[in-house]
Amino acid sequence: MNTNFEILKQYCIDVDMTEANNKGLVTKNELNDNYFKCLFIYKKILNKYLCEKLNLKEYDNLIKNHPLKFIPNSTNNYDIYQYTSNVGMEYIYIRNNLFIERLDKSQIDTLVADYDNSNISKNSLVIVQNTYQDIIKMYKDKPDFINLSYGPFSPDYFAKNKSIVIGVNVNLFNFNGLTAIECRNKFSSQMLEIGEIIEKMNVELKDKLDIPIKVIRYDENSIMPIKKNEMGKSK
Question: What number of CA atoms fall less than 13 Å from residue 215's CA on the CB side?
Answer without folding.
Answer: 21
